[in-house]
Design brief:
By secondary structure, the protein is mainly alpha-helical. It has 15 helices and no strands.
Length: 311
């Protein structure tokens, strides 16, 4: 499809009744297609792999998960499905053969990419992260072993050039049911280090779409001014994700505390979000799902939310 025709289509779809928030997902959908296409027809020697070209986003990852596991992206969940003629699939699922080829390719790329070179490290990290979407027992064992092999990066304190790799490793292990490395990461590589705290908020903002500019590498994370993203959008999306990702609740709690510490005015800018977040904070503080650190930080966040709402 020619670029001009695609642009025309994107302009016409909202006029024909398509939700603008769905039309914007064409970009991550095309990114997902490029990644899947690179697996089915691997780049030739000397060509750049799409996973080394840019830091992928949550929307792109969700599109890939939709294609391999049938998991509807949260951005599309709950939307009515218009009636269509004839038998149609419930999701854009890959065939069994294409799915196997995708994950085989991701594992080969993750094994072969350099962990030390800039683009190689990005390729390795993102290929390994996406390979964890394979839920077959053998694949989950391979992914867990590969992630545990990288646990050395979790020993570092504060910001290091491999900080993003450590974060990715810890979150992937948490998704596989091992929360320990994530708690270690928060304690050692995140808390009480200004550069690491800024990197965490910048990365969250990019991942959830509060920092819309595409990023070619991880350098954007170390901007301690926190001026590149919209903090209100980040607050809303962290609040929305708090109950959608129970395996990461400690990281969400710490990140919300850091965001409210950096921008204590946020509850006044978005009272509805502040109210919803406060209700979730109370529920988590009354339960036993989070660590002692997360409870302390949510307690501070709860106080900030209540005080600003009184004002």
């Amino acid at each position: 499809m020619k670029a001009n025709a695609l642009l025309t289509l994107r302009r016409r779809l909202p006029a024909l009744g398509a939700a603008p928030s769905v039309v914007t997902l064409l970009d991550p959908a095309m990114d997902a297609d490029r990644i899947i296409g690179a697996a089915l027809e691997p780049p030739k020697p000397g060509e750049t792999h799409p996973l080394s070209e840019w830091v992928h986003t949550r929307d792109a990852a969700h599109m890939i998960a939709w294609a391999v596991n049938g998991t509807i992206p949260p951005a599309l969940a709950g939307r009515p499905s218009p009636p269509r003629r004839g038998a149609v699939p419930n999701a854009p699922l890959l065939s069994g053969g294409d799915r196997a080829a995708l994950f085989d390719h991701l594992r080969i790329v993750a094994d072969g990419a350099s962990r030390n070179a800039g683009k190689g490290a990005l390729l390795h990290r993102q290929a390994l992260y996406l390979s964890s979407y394979d839920r077959s027992p053998d694949a989950m064992m391979w992914t867990a072993q590969a992630l545990h092999f990288r646990r050395d990066v979790l020993a570092a304190h504060g910001w290091t050039p491999r900080w993003a790799e450590a974060r990715s490793t810890a979150t992937a292990l948490a998704r596989l049911g091992d929360p320990g490395p994530l708690l270690t990461f928060i304690e050692r590589a995140l808390a009480d280090d200004d550069t690491a705290e800024a990197a965490n908020l910048n990365y969250w903002a990019y991942w959830v779409g509060a920092l819309p500019q595409s990023q070619a590498d991880d350098h954007f994370m170390v901007d301690r001014s926190l001026s590149a993203f919209d903090p209100v959008t980040l607050l809303r999306r962290l609040n929305r994700g708090l109950h959608q990702a129970p395996g990461y609740v400690d990281l969400y709690a710490h990140s919300l505390w850091a965001l409210l510490t950096a921008h204590p005015w946020l509850p006044l800018a978005s009272p509805e979000t502040a109210h919803a977040l406060d209700e979730q904070a109370v529920e988590l503080l009354d339960g036993d799902r989070i660590s002692a650190r997360a409870k302390r930080e949510l307690g501070v966040g709860h106080y900030v939310l209540r005080e600003n709402r009184k004002a």
